[in-house]
Amino acid sequence: MSPSATEPQVPVGPPPPFEVPVIDITPYVDGGPACQCASVARQMDDACARVGFVQILGHGIPDGTVDGLTAAMDGFFGLPLEGRKSYRVTGANRGYSPPKSESLSLSLGVESAGRMNDFFEAFNIGTEARSFPGLDLSEDDYGLNVWPTQVDGFEPAVLGYFAQAGRVARTLTRVFADALGEPSDFFDSLTDHSIDVLRMNNYALPEGPVTLDGDLTGMGEHTDFGLVTVLWADQVAGLQVLGTDGAWHDVSPVDGALLVNLGDLTARLTNDRWMSTLHRVKPPIVDGGIVRRRSAAYFHDGNVDAVISTLPSHLDASGELAYEPILVRDHIKAKLAGSRQGKANAAAVREAARVRAAAGREPGKGGPAAGSGPVTPR
């Protein structure tokens, strides 16, 4: 007997394949007509609600600026280890982080089961409190930059990219405002003295063979802390995103694209309708060697003294909140205490549950990784 027209239809076949949508934001960058901007905003709303990750074209960052950034990164990460370590900054989100000095999963309150997570090194720069002389801000919330003097042109090259990535991040918040049906300047009051950080990452293990103890992870699973992240990355496999199917999916940028993902604070604004998507990095092993991978993440985290509350338009019928209002300073502090100080973030209950559920679905989780044995970094 055939189902009646009023009966719900059950979908047949497998779910659609996972994809990270590609969106051209040229109308916002070049001041295009309202109808084109509206189309971009609709695409953005769909992508943020379904995936939480987007690839953007038309961002307007010149190739020369990206080339300058990568040359600066190569120069710094090519220094001897002791030279790199001389730029460590205790207690601040600045300077050099050696491999294994951070635990990203602890920013979600999740202890790694193995000892093979967070084999990446990084160098951070960002906005400083003194960047906003008219405000009474503390460098304890921002941090003072340090600049490697051994690498010619490092500071101007990195600052050149930092300015361009910041422009893209602020453009994206205008797209977000339109997509959420808010005034176009909605985010201005939340970001006019934003804590913004550029983290340059190098995924390469030390010289010599490595014996894998479990599953090797370049950067542990985590969500980003703030409003939006703009990511430049090599077209090298490794970045993985947790889909709504509970499985991890490989992501690599298309030619000329930047990867964009939402942070926790945007998920709070939208009561989780837009997703702060869990992601991690798995260094690829090819012919017994770990292929080097580079990335540079620009974190647009919001004003240190801003309070993030769910938008009235995103409350459910009962008016219930997924999250209580939170001060940006308190949220960032709790996340950094996990990743950089080894203190599990007990407040990240929802994110931690998603990590554990995904881990339970991975084949062979808890045992040795397939093909584990000596691996020589390249």
Mean pLDDT: 81
So, the CATH homologous superfamily? B-lactam Antibiotic, Isopenicillin N Synthase, Chain
Highest CATH level, the class: Mainly Beta
How much of the sequence lies in strands comes to 15-25%
Fill in the CATH topology. Jelly Rolls
Notable traits:
9 helices; Jelly Rolls; 378 residues; disordered C terminus; alpha+beta
How would you sum up this structure, described in words?
It is built from nine helices and 18 strands. The chain is globular, with a radius of gyration of 21 Å. The protein has a single domain (22-364, 372-377), classed as B-lactam Antibiotic, Isopenicillin N Synthase, Chain (Jelly Rolls, Sandwich), CATH 2.60.120. The protein has helices spanning 26-29, 34-50, 63-77, 81-85, 154-179, 188-191, 264-269, 328-341, 349-361; strands spanning 22-24, 53-57, 95-97, 121-126, 194-203, 210-211, 219-222, 228-233, 239-242, 248-250, 258-262, 279-281, 285-286, 289-290, 293-303, 307-308, 326-327, 374-377. A hairpin with a 5-residue loop joins strand 9 (239-242) and strand 10 (248-250). The chain is α+β, with helices and mostly antiparallel strands and 378 residues long. It has an eight-stranded mixed β-sheet with strand order 1-2-11-8-15-5-4-3, with helices on both faces.
